[in-house]
Amino acid sequence: MTSVAADERVAGAGWPRRLLIRPELGSVVGAVAVFAFFSSQSEVFRSADGVANWLDPASTLGIMAVAIALLMIGGEFDLSAGVLTGTTGLVMVTLATKYGWNVWAAMLAGLVLALAIGFANGLLVVRTKLPSFIVTLGTFLMLQGLNLGVTKALTGTVQVGGLRRAEGYEGARAVLAGSVTAGGVDYRVAIFWWLGVTALATWVLMRSRAGNWIFAVGGNERAARAAGIPAARTKIALFMTTATAAWLVGSIMALRFTSVQANSGIGQEFIYIIAAVIGGCLLTGGYGSAIGASIGAVIFGMADKGIVFAGWDADWFKFFLGAMLLMATLANRLVRRYAEEVRR
Fold first, then answer.
1. What is the pLDDT of residues 160-197, one digit of tens each?
2. Tell me: the pLDDT tens digits for 40-70?
3. How far apart are CA 146 and CA 140, in angstroms?
4. Beta-strand (E) ranges in the chain?
5. CB-based contacts of 248: which residues, under 8 Å, 6+ apart?
6. Cα separations (Å) of 314 from 59, 61, 283?
7. What is the pLDDT averaged over residues 124-151?
8. What are the φ/ψ torsions at residue 128 (nearest 5 degrees)?
9. Which of 239, 255, 310, 340 is the 20 to 30 Å CA partner of 142?
């Protein structure tokens, strides 16, 4: 009888080896190092207020990074994810302020649109066999033009505002964009949404049949199809998951600021991918973790606020991100090679 090599997630190995082949190991080490460094530079950074401060940007980034990580593990990319956060926010604010919709109903309309766009992206990728990079780049450009053109046509400016006066705003804001006080420190509700999304994505990847399908189609789509795995449906579902995350983040930001700029979210798609890669995802697919992507978002949040707390020029932030991306990619490559050796 032919033996089948075990997935590194469940391979029989001692705990040191199992620890060393975890995709998020590099990001954990990086997060500890970044925290230690900025803590030495600023007392505010390591205080409770400081932690709440850098967890805030990490939360919204983390929601998107986790969804992008799932998609990357499945072997695909979504360059429209950033601009889609702006699109869904614009839809919600426009319907609520210009047409008198209840905020909850406007949010639901934004979700339906996001799911439709995600479905269209996934369907085009699986039917045409075009690289998802090209398909979603086209979607990115179309949404960018629509956001700007429709917003200017409706308002005469590049911004839609006034959400605070809409019916249902206070309730929606409390659920998605409010704050929770603990120990005298205010923490954004988005942090708990982020933790919930990370926990759910981790369960799906590690404990469900869908998780096995995601790893399989990302590792070898042809072999996955031969094994009876619904590769097309899996990939379409992943694009729709990314779109849902974009809707959630877009809604959170719109409710927080009560207005949306037509160019919101543009450029953020690369930050999402960087966070996922720092967290252990391979650009080639089939490897990564939701926890790692969340830790990548934490590193982003710490760097974003840590540079400010340390009194540095904010221009260094992009340099830091680039350096982290290169180091994470090299570390992921070494971990993957070691994981393959363990499996032999």
1. 999 999 999 999 999 999 999 988 899 999 999 999 99
2. 988 999 999 999 999 999 999 999 999 999 9
3. 10
4. 159-160, 179-182, 185-188, 260-261
5. 63, 176, 193, 197
6. 20, 18, 28
7. 96
8. -90, -20
9. 255
Q: Work out the number of other CB atoms within 10 angstroms of the CB of residue 272.
A: 34
3-class DSSP state of 261: strand
Output the CA torsion sign for 159, 58, 255, 239.
positive
- Supply the angle between the helices 209-219 and 231-257 in degrees, to the nearest 10: 110
Joined together, the tokens standing for residue 115 give 């799911």
C-alpha 14/C-alpha 286 separation (Å) is 23
* 8-state DSSP, 279: T
CA 241 to chain centre: 10
Nearest Cα neighbor of 262 from 246, 278, 250 is 250
For 81, phi then psi, to 5°, come to -65, -40
Exposed e or buried b per residue across 60-77, where buried means at least 16 C-beta atoms within 10 angstroms of its C-beta:
bbbbbbbbbbbbbbbbbb
Report residue 35 CA to chain centroid gap: 21
How confident is the model over 136-158, as a mean pLDDT?
Answer: 95
DSSP H or E segment with residue 160: strand 159-160
pTM score above 0.85: yes
Which of these, 310, 304, 333, lies nearest to 62 by C-alpha position? Answer: 304
Q: Which residues contact 208 (CB under 8 A, 6 or more apart)?
A: none
CB–CB of 276/68 below 8 Å?
yes
In terms of Cα–Cα distance, which of 233, 226, 212, 46 is closest to 127?
233
Residue 309 has pLDDT above 90, yes or no: no
State the CB neighbour count (10 A cutoff) for residue 182.
10
Distance between CA atoms of 159 and 329, rounded to whole angstroms?
Answer: 38
One-letter amino acid at 234 equals T
**Spatial separation of the C-alpha atoms in residues 306 and 300, rounded to whole Å:** 10
CB atoms within 10 A of CB 337: 10
| Three-state secondary structure call for residue 168 | coil
